[in-house]
Specification:
Chain A: It comes from Agrococcus versicolor. The structure holds 2 protein chains of 2 kinds. Chain A is of the alpha/beta class. Chain A is 36% helix and 21% strand. In chain A, the strands form 3 sheets. Chain A has a 7-stranded mixed sheet, sandwiched between helices. In chain A, α9 links the parallel β13 (260-267) and β14 (293-297). In chain A, α1 (10-24) packs parallel to α6, α3 runs parallel beside α4 (95-108) and α7 crosses α11 (315-326). Chain B is α/β, with parallel strands linked by helices. Chain B folds into 2 domains: 4-340, Rossmann fold; 342-374, no CATH class. In chain B, 47% of the residues lie in helices and 9% in strands. In chain B, a hairpin with a 2-residue loop joins β4 and β5. The chains are: A alpha/beta, B alpha/beta.
Chain lengths: 328, 374
């Protein structure tokens, strides 16, 4: 079969993915703030209300708990709601509805009722915005049983993973790397690249494994490029899924290189990076030449935008960790 | 349109505390609806209340004897609850909080399904498809108000309102208390349901105490006035009068199913028992207050009405005997109830396959088996 690839930015790949999901199943409905005529503050739902109607692309009152709680009720009625949370730092008013309701209701019903609800959250820094607009809340959700948590880093993954998230029968926290919304990539609309919860090697290398997710993958690829010029071969693993984590490619890479750096924008304490480090130590201990090192945001609130470049790990901080992991 | 049907000094009632029918300028339209209740319907309402009261008392005893982890008594609030339960039509859905045992019973939830939640055997306990739309209890206060709204939005999106067929068009009832009215989710449900004209009726039971805090702390404005401010058709009723609860509940559910948007019923009632078996009401309220409300007991009230309607005492005695048998069944069932299999920890956390949890389930099974092999 001939493949059809199209260049598009991540934001447009998400739009196209949701359009395909909505066309395939009229139970797929979108709920959120400003997602109708405006197309969302990032324009990810651009044109969808005009195409599918205001009854399927629903501008809600401005209340995040109301959005998620109502989506839960819609799921009970047989719908597949896709909620848009406007920014990462605005998800917390919905926290109870996500972690105590949505995450646990399938179990509470002993499987008699399913909750195929997707919650899209643009997350992460690098956009120079005011407080609450640049956070990385993934650990809260990855820690919560009953949720699935994923984050695409490429346009192709964005196009396919949003559809897979909508098709699945469990709640999915879908974290969108907003700093990379306008990064273009090839999208192959003929075939999915693989299952939703699969981690992949984004760049092959032999000396050090770099592990990350979302926008951080772009930083890791940049660091690997620089390292190559300095004679160090870095492999980059894109986690794609944060809950569950597909460990096999991560552990296999760690076994090949013996040295691992895991990087994330989120604070490091009790984070996805901590879980990656711990699991590699458990499963690849005899292959390791050095402890797994973490590069994270600091254990401090996300700073004013003037300091975001200091707070967020960049290629230099990743390369510093590469130097340290090589020094063992 | 007038959102408030009446500005009254007293809540609407059709039966006074002695069980006598009340007629005043505001009651006639409600009597017209309540008159649909046959004497058999009224006896069935009484039966549901009497059985629930007996199970309630037995469950409290079982908790005191260490057989239940907790019990949530509904004593005193059965009147309004049975009224709105009978107001629901077959195709309707109810989202209870955790104190609506009469409603759960009327819709078909088995007593042991409720008991299982409180003896620590399950978190939910029933499939709403088997209980005529009675959803499971919700313990985080007012969260179910949003679920009810979403479900009602879905009904409207399905086109299952406003066709004019009251036997097909659907409506949703959500129940909570005066304490819950302070939760953001309660207000968000009022906003969303009005915005989307969802067929949702809120039954707010002002039982005067949110554990130890009086309802005056929740709101200095009567809550039916607050709901009117959200644009809901709003009513203030005697929550210990099954007939007014039926009449207003039926009218509101039918208006909602007709596509007229959401309604709100504030019920003036009283939690005669403790908040839960862990509570001690003597620390925050007077016995004089409790006694004043015991004189307004909904079961005695409807019994007096039934006698006045010519129902024989023997029939009421038979209900008490049936209730004693039901309570004894619940006791036997509770004592015989075993522990669920440990697989329950893992099963149904996810619907689709989930490898890490499957591995943990297997590891636990192997760990448990390792003791058997020693």
């Amino acid at each position: 079969m001939a493949t059809t690839t199209t260049q598009m930015p991540i934001a447009k790949a998400l739009t196209a993915g949701m359009r395909a999901a909505m066309a395939a199943d009229d139970k797929v409905v979108l709920l959120g703030e400003d997602i109708g005529p405006l197309g969302g503050v990032f324009r990810v739902t651009d044109g969808l209300q005009a195409e599918f109607g205001a009854h399927r692309v629903i501008d809600t009152p401005l209340a995040e708990s109301g959005i998620v709680g109502s989506a839960i009720g819609l799921a009970m009625r047989g719908y597949r709601p896709v909620c848009e949370i406007q920014f990462d730092g605005f998800v917390y008013p919905a926290f109870d509805q996500i972690v105590s309701q949505l995450a646990k209701l399938t179990s509470r019903h002993a499987g008699a009722v399913t909750f195929p609800v997707v919650i899209r959250i643009p997350y992460g820094g690098h956009i120079g915005a005011v407080e609450h607009h640049q956070e990385s809340p993934e650990a809260y959700f990855a820690h919560t049983a009953g949720l699935r948590v994923v984050s695409p880093s490429t346009a192709n993954d964005a196009y396919w993973m949003i559809q897979q998230a909508i098709l699945g029968n469990d709640p999915v926290i879908f974290l969108e790397p907003k700093a990379k919304y306008w990064a273009k990539g090839e999208v192959d609309t003929t075939a999915a690249p693989g299952p939703l919860h699969r981690s992949v090697v984004a760049r092959e290398g032999s000396d050090v494994t770099l592990v990350g997710h979302g926008a951080m993958v772009h930083v890791l690829l940049q660091a690997a490029q620089i390292a190559e010029g300095e004679g160090t071969s870095c492999e980059v693993v894109d986690l794609r899924s944060l809950s569950p984590i597909d460990w096999a490619p991560v552990v296999a890479s760690a076994q090949r290189t013996g040295r691992v750096v895991v990087a994330q924008e989120a604070p490091g304490h009790v984070s996805v990076g901590s879980e990656v480090a711990a699991t590699i130590h458990e499963r690849a201990f005899y292959s390791l030449e050095a402890p797994v090192l973490r590069v994270s945001g600091f254990d401090a609130p996300f700073p004013p935008a003037a300091l975001e470049a200091v707070y967020l790990p960049d290629a230099d901080r990743v390369l510093d960790a590469v130097d340290r992991v090589l020094a063992y | 349109m007038t959102l408030l049907a009446t500005e009254r000094a007293e809540p609407l009632r059709l039966l006074d505390a002695e069980g006598a029918l009340v007629h005043d300028a505001d009651t006639e339209r409600w009597h017209a609806i309540a008159d649909e209740l046959t004497i058999d319907d009224r006896i069935a309402m009484q039966r549901a209340m009497v059985l629930t009261r007996a199970v309630d008392m037995e469950a409290r005893n079982l908790q005191r004897q260490g057989k239940l982890g907790l019990w949530v008594p509904s004593v005193g609030q059965e009147g309004g609850q049975v009224g709105v339960a009978f107001a629901m039509r077959d195709q309707d859905t109810v989202f209870p909080s955790y104190r609506e045992h009469v409603i759960a019973h009327v819709r078909g939830v088995e007593w042991m399904q409720i008991i299982d939640v409180f003896r620590g055997a399950r978190h939910g306990g029933w499939d709403p498809a088997d209980t005529r739309g009675c959803r499971i209890y919700s313990l985080v206060i007012a969260t179910q108000a949003l679920h009810a709204n979403g479900y009602a939005m879905g009904i409207r999106m399905d086109g299952a309102v406003g066709t004019g067929d009251v036997t097909a068009d659907e409506a949703v009832l959500v129940c909570y208390g005066d304490g819950a009215s302070s939760q953001g989710d309660a207000s968000e449900s009022l906003v969303f349901s009005k915005t989307f004209d969802a067929p949702l009726v809120t039954y707010m039971q002002d039982n005067k105490w949110a554990i130890s805090v009086p309802s005056s702390t929740q709101s200095s404005t009567p809550l039916h006035l607050r709901a009117a401010g959200f644009g809901h058709r709003s009513h203030w009723i005697d929550g210990n009068d099954p007939l007014i609860a039926f009449a207003v509940g039926r009218a509101e559910l039918d208006a909602a199913r007709a596509g007229e948007g959401p309604g709100y019923i504030a019920a003036d009632t009283y939690r005669i028992g403790a908040h839960t078996t862990s509570d001690d009401p003597t620390r925050y309220r007077t016995s004089a207050e409790e006694e004043s409300w015991q004189r307004r007991d909904p079961i005695a009230r409807l019994a007096a009405h039934l006698r006045e309607q010519g129902v024989e005492d023997a029939l009421l005695v038979a209900l008490d005997e049936e209730a004693a048998d039901t309570a004894a069944d619940v006791r036997r069932g509770t004592l015989a109830g075993g522990s669920p299999a440990s697989d329950m920890i893992f099963d149904h956390v996810y619907t689709d396959p989930h490898a890490p949890l499957a591995e943990q389930k297997l590891a636990l099974a192997e760990f448990e088996q390792s003791f058997g092999e020693a």
